[in-house]
């Protein structure tokens, strides 16, 4: 089983426009959808659609619309009572794939609610192969909480993947190697935050086909105890770094409809590949295939196995010697 934690869940409403967004103007919408959201829930949705045994842990009250939304999609969950309703996030999607997000801060989680959420996660993770800690933290949770959880989960023998940013990410890194997760999934900005490198340099190099700086940054994290670095680079693909090597994957171009959930889908694809025993290059291939499928979908829609095509993903071994892995046929 895979357990996902979403400490700051949301109901994600996506509004699709018929034309470009213009400030101060009245817009006609093409359609509007509402999905259960938050990065950990996104991972759970993708895993569930692929038939994986997954449990979503989150703070939410009985009767909250988020609970109904999870139940409606058949996703197993463990909800811990909290002090208020689930936040509402809005995504404005333009026809060219540009997305604008308006995210509320979330209901504070302190005192008893935080203690119960912590205890519920550890209880659910006792028999889990992986626990995924994803997304922002709501008001009231200290930024060091993910670092605390990594240590507690390690004592259970559970592998841990982390996908977060800003304060919680930096607080986690401050406690490497004892709080170093088995997998960390940064984008270029987050990788730069973690290693003190320049995000612009990482992005420019990757866009030009040179991921040397990304690989070097990944190796810094591996040297500090992280098991695997899955660095997602948008249209430039992704890079996987472990103590055994480094690989880059790129995909055939697709029409981008929304970038929401692409990184979460990539992490889910990686875990699905790992669960089936695939080697690191093939884990990266499936991760990029899922991320690519996600950006081709509208709003907060997430990929299912039928929409994922790994044969369009090209993986290159960039350590210890350059060689191209064949594309699936």
Set out the fold topology:
Elements lengths: L1 E5 L3 E8 L11 E9 L1 H11 L4 E6 L5 H8 L4 E4 L6 E7 L5 E4 L8 H15 L4 E5 L10 H10 L4 E5 L2 H9 L8 E2 L3 H8 L3 H9 L4 H12 L4 E5 L5 E5 L2 E7 L10 H14 L4 H16 L17 E7 L3 E2 L5
Parallel strand pairs: 1-4, 1-8, 2-6, 4-5, 8-9, 9-10, 10-11
Antiparallel strand pairs: 2-3, 6-7, 11-12, 12-13, 13-14, 14-15
From the alpha carbons, calculate the radius of gyration and give it in angstroms.
19 Å
Task: Outline the biggest β-sheet.
Answer: 11 strands, mixed
Beta fraction: 15-25%
Mean pLDDT: 93
Shape: globular
Secondary-structure element sequence?
A: EEEHEHEEEHEHEHEHHHEEEHHEE
Please report the number of helical segments: 10
Strand order of the largest sheet: 5-4-1-8-9-10-11-12-13-14-15
Q: What percentage of residues falls in helices of 4 or more residues?
A: 25-40%
Q: Cα distance, first to last residue?
A: 31 Å
Unreliable segments (pLDDT under 50, ≥5 consecutive)? Answer: 320-329
Strand element count: 15
Q: What structural category characterises the helix and strand content?
A: alpha/beta
